[in-house]
Design a protein that fits this description.
CATH class of the largest domain: Alpha Beta
Structural class: alpha+beta
Largest sheet: 5 strands, mixed
Distance between the termini: 40 Å
Number of strands: 10
Oligomer: single chain
Helix content: 10-25%
Number of domains: 2
CATH superfamily of the largest domain: Periplasmic binding protein-like II
Number of helices: 6
């Protein structure tokens, strides 16, 4: 018997797997990456016990703890005029062609960007996961962020589940449920502190160049949305 955990692309559960193995060597934790369109399917059928999902989701019958935010980036072909910008706004991209979005397949979406079909807006974690040498990821200063959450079925809320929730929220094996050290925001059954974003947009610089689509903010290097 094992605890079964699903997670979407862009989530790296390795640190929690290690912490769980140290705390519960007698109970294996099986982790499976799932496609975002099907991120709740196995949870609702009982094939998974918990899941890291990308919001929004239909949370009926689920406990849900929002965790960290993912900032949005514009992924551009390497030769794009905005590829050297430190940051962009949505207005900068107005009038620019957009690549055809491939639902559930961000790698293919980025491949289409590399082929010159246009830009794509994705969470920074996905741009980093599917990094390519022929595209660049530039932070979007005013695009809505996305958020990762931990969810599990209400009827499955037992001590084993709560032990894993404690691992994610930073509780030690000896601490009580009320003593949280995690920096993840929460709502519903159990709240915790807000997280720092996955990446921060670069500081705004004076507009330069000819200013296509409102003008990109330029700097000395490419904006990659790296975490500080």
């Amino acid at each position: 018997m094992a605890l079964r955990l699903d997670y979407v692309a862009g989530v790296s559960p390795a640190k929690w797997l290690r912490a769980w193995a140290e705390r519960h060597p007698e109970l294996p934790l099986d982790a499976v990456r799932v496609d975002e369109p099907a991120q709740l399917d196995r949870l609702r059928t009982g094939e998974a016990d918990l899941a890291f999902v990308r919001l929004p989701v239909d949370a009926e019958g689920l406990h849900l703890i929002p965790l960290w935010e993912e900032l949005a980036v514009a992924v551009l072909e390497k030769g794009h005029p905005f590829a050297d910008a430190d940051s962009l706004t949505l207005a900068d991209l107005k009038g620019e062609p957009a690549a055809p979005v491939q639902p559930g397949d961000p790698a293919m979406t980025l491949e289409l960007v590399a082929a010159g079909t246009g830009y794509a807006i994705v969470p920074h974690s996905l741009a980093r996961l599917h990094h390519r040498r022929d595209v660049v990821a530039v932070p979007l200063a005013d695009a809505p962020s996305t958020r990762i959450a931990l969810v599990w079925a209400v009827e499955r809320d037992d001590e084993t589940i709560q032990d894993f929730v404690g691992v994610v929220r930073g509780r030690t094996a000896r601490s009580s449920r009320g003593a949280e050290t995690s920096d993840a925001p929460g709502e519903g059954a159990r709240d915790v502190k807000p997280a720092r974003a996955t990446a921060k947009p670069a500081a705004k610089h004076p507009r330069g160049g000819k200013g296509r689509g409102g003008g990109a903010r330029r700097g000395n290097g490419r904006g990659t949305g790296r975490r500080r």
